User: Which sequence fits this backbone?
């Protein structure tokens, strides 16, 4: 059973050596709140909480699952106590305004904390995670009164929140939302409808649950332009902001899922529940989009989390399990067989996990700095800057969400594979990671939805391909700077090639799409995966650049093996994972009619 | 929830149109037993049993699982009744000798029957499946008395069998087996030890269970050369072959697994259990190898089974679920949105499943003919011919087992992906297929073990690469024959290229391996996957050749859409799946030191 250990050395490498978070923080308006000691305290405090409180509940929470009883939901044993500790530690308010009881620290620290928590116990982490969507919505679109009523409780964590979007007939296609909002004479609304797949929709961790609900006003236009947002609390707040009357929102059942079983996924029935409009009428979907990029970044973290946890489980097993002899001769001559870590193919699996976890972490931490700047712009009321930064982040998020969750799932499966048959047995804890990881490519927009967002919206419609030109020229600049570095030569060469190819593919799709609209869909997932492999290559090259620099300068001698390992893993990534981009490149350029010309009724002649 | 429908049109296409089973059967010594009517009766009888008896138990068996109580194991509700029907139908004896009550039909019919049964309900199919290993061993290595005692019951299915190989400390590396066999004065043996992961090791379906156990005699040499085989029945047979005294083999527990939960996986404790030597002392592992290829072929079927079942689940959902509009314009203008089958990316997923299921089925059916010839040679006592055929099959089996189970798992995951978030919910039945499919790359030799068997044993050591030259020249001959067929032009061209590349890669690894032994391990899985993509391409081209021929000749006009669909799916395979071979080609040729040079202790600096 994997026992989580926070990878603080790697986290600090990224924060201090690769991305210079301390300089970055100095550029933010809340820079006075964050110093080296604070960061250390947060990293170590989070590590302690994750290792000693959350990790021990990971497997037991899966075995027990959540319990539904007549509308009430009980989380697994120990979850309530862990959540109380979370609240007492002030963890929920880390990056929320001091005005509402938070600590006002940069969002990136919250993301890093969430990565640790999510790796230790993803199901647990979903409860406070959903509150963030709710808090962001209220902070940005709520009235002063709404903010004053809900934010202090949500920031403290004593209340939690949800996002109620999906209905039985629609998830991605929110234009089909049917839930109704009837205006009342007192200015409130009666909300009626059924929402499904509501994470943290009902549970016993908090006194109150604040639902953000997508619904239609009576006169609303059809489709996506007729959706409004409502605050529908489980208990209506009293005038002094405390728990009042029970509202008519009830949990009809919780889903039986493949994984993340300790996370309650609720069916919520709104039966003329009292709701309060938040933001402008019919602009609800637009409001949702405001936080889509940061929300998707939060889900991208799941790919890193499961790659990391599965690696932490597989590594000690590979060092201990004895089987056969390495082909190049005995490595453990005194033992009955060699530890399987000495087999090249087992190393290939472990290194895949490690390359994804560390490469993905670098991608997350880099984008977390953009998220910091966005929060800052929002706090400063600088909408223009926010929009500009959001457009930048918007290029990264579908790649990170789509690519990292796909790779996280593969990495979790490699962890099972290292264990052989034992990987299939629950007690070892490896198969749970696969089951938990499987949701990540589905929710918060499937991989296909991310791919269409990337290629259709962000690359073609949004920028006519310019975003790729801009990004690859950034990479090529890096290549120019390091062209004469002997450690980096092969990275520079491979990056140069893939940047050229990335641009070429984009142009070819752009030209093809004029006549063949479907190619945007038929090429999309291959384009997303290609982009992911290319982007992660750049992030590995950046890590290699820092490591080679340290080695050359003789800095951090006590870390020399760490830096050498970084170079080796970067090489592994370029040797073994980056080549997959070529299959995607070839596949995506085939005409879409290869997919569209088979009639629906001819997909099978037997059924 | 996927409801199984036997794909009889596709099965008949392969049997009658592609591989001409009727001519093939005429070459076998038992040809008088098999005619068109018999085959039809078997196909339709198996389809009926699978659709109406096994399929309805698929999901309930997973939910309920098996129950262990003080050494006894109860299978899920309905399994005993289904098994009784299976026995009454005479299904277990289909391809076993008439002398023991079987029907003496070719093994291929048994494989095709197993494919249908396994697709409808893999867990159920494992119980009779394990008996086959046991029967084959007794038939080939047992004394007349042993055959007469066990075979009639096993062939009838009233007794079942197991293969007891794995122990807690070893699975792949059977040289580490510790179970002891102490000779007794009466010529019997006392067997003591613990075996794990014993499929069908204990259950309530049959009156008796016949274990084939790997154990060591007191004077046995160390390692693989000191392993003998023993028959250890749960109940000792009386002199007249009926159920006698209970033997000292007990089921200590059953495993809690990720999937195949209706299949009982037993821990068996042998406590001086009475055993009977079968075959020669210390030659047990050699005997096991006799049936390894056919056993692995049986597991390869699982890849096809789960791709097929997941496709059968995803297809109707994709036709019904409405979401967004196709990029090239409305396809269901009267509906609120288009069915998702109109999105090119959803088609990509469905076609991947279909291409794997049908391409894999073709690979299985072709090799099933080799298996027929092997059984025939064995029945005729022609060891030389058997060995020759086994060497031929031995090239296919690691590719089919490794590649098809990996692709079956991917296909099962695509089925979940088509469902979006609903795929993650148990009630839809799609996630179960993923969990069930996950075992297939682990047992009966992991993908890594298959890859080393292919590249190390079969290609390099066994034939110095000649087997690839032989196989690719067969493909190139096909290409020559179809070079001027307008339907096949692109297949011929792509096949020619990949054959050249396959040969080149093999030669390069062969040359590299002289100095760098580890490359055989470091390249192995990429080599296996490359081989799988190349081989499946050939099997798709063969299907396309038949389909194009029928279209040209105007044969089977009522099937014109079927043939056209075959051509489209073949094109899809070459467009979208075959290109992945290029990533594997590039990855495998990197030097092994990229994997081996990182010290075990430097895989992590945090834990």
Assistant:
């Amino acid at each position: 059973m994997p026992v989580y250990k926070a990878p603080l050395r790697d986290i600090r490498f990224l924060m201090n050596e690769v991305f210079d978070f301390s300089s970055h923080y100095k550029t933010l308006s809340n820079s006075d709140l964050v110093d080296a000691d604070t960061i250390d305290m947060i990293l170590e405090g989070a590590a302690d909480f994750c290792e000693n409180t959350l990790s021990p509940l990971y497997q037991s929470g899966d075995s027990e699952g959540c319990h539904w009883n007549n509308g009430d939901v009980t989380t697994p044993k120990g979850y309530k106590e862990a959540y109380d500790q979370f609240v007492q530690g002030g963890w929920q308010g880390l990056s929320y305004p001091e005005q509402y009881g938070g600590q006002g620290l940069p969002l990136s620290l919250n993301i890093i904390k969430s990565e640790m928590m999510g790796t230790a116990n993803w199901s647990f982490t979903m409860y406070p995670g959903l509150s963030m969507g709710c808090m962001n919505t209220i902070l940005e679109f709520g009235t002063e009164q709404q903010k004053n009523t809900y934010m202090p409780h949500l920031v403290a964590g004593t209340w939690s929140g949800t996002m109620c979007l999906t209905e039985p007939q629609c998830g991605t296609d929110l234009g089909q939302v049917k839930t109704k909002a009837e205006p009342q004479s007192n200015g409130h609304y009666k909300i009626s409808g059924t929402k499904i797949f509501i994470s943290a929709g009902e549970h016993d961790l908090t006194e109150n649950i604040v639902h953000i609900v997508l619904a239609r006003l009576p006169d609303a236009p059809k489709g996506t332009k007729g959706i409004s947002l409502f605050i529908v609390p489980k208990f209506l707040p009293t005038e002094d902001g405390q728990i009042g009357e029970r509202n008519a929102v009830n949990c009809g059942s919780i889903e039986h899922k493949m994984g993340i079983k300790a996370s309650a996924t609720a069916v919520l029935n709104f039966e003329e529940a009292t709701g309060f409009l938040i933001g402008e009428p019919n602009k609800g979907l637009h409001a949702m989009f405001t936080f889509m990029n940061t929300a998707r970044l939060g889900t991208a973290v799941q790919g890193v989390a499961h790659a990391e946890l599965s690696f932490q489980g597989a590594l000690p097993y590979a060092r201990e399990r004895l089987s056969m002899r390495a082909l190049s001769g005995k490595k453990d001559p005194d033992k009955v067989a060699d530890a399987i870590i000495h087999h090249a193919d087992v190393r290939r699996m472990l290194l895949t996990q490690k390359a994804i976890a560390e490469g993905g972490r670098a991608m997350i931490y880099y984008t977390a700095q953009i998220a910091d700047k966005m929060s800052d712009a929002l706090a400063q009321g600088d909408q223009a800057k926010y929009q500009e930064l959001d457009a930048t982040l918007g290029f990264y998020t579908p790649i990170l969400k789509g690519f990292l969750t796909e790779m996280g799932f593969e990495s979790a499966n490699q962890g099972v594979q290292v264990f052989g048959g034992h990987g299939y047995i629950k007690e070892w804890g490896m198969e749970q990671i696969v089951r938990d990881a499987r949701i990540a490519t589905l929710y918060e927009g499937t991989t296909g939805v991310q791919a269409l967002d990337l290629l259709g919206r962000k690359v073609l419609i949004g920028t006519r391909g310019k975003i790729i030109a801009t990004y690859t020229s950034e990479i090529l600049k890096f290549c120019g700077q390091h062209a004469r570095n002997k450690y980096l030569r092969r990275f520079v060469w491979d990056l140069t090639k893939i940047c050229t190819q990335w641009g070429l593919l984009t142009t070819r799709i752009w030209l093809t799409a004029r006549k063949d609209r479907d190619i945007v869909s038929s090429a999309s997932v291959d384009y997303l995966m290609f982009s992911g492999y290319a982007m992660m290559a750049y992030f590995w090259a950046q890590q290699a650049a820092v490591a080679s620099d340290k080695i050359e300068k003789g800095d951090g001698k006590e870390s020399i093996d760490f830096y050498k390992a970084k170079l080796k893993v970067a090489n592994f990534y370029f040797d073994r994972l980056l080549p997959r981009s070529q299959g995607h490149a070839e596949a995506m350029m085939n005409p879409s009619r290869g997919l569209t010309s088979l009639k629906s009724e001819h997909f099978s002649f037997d059924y």
Summary: The first helix of chain B runs from residue 8 to 18.
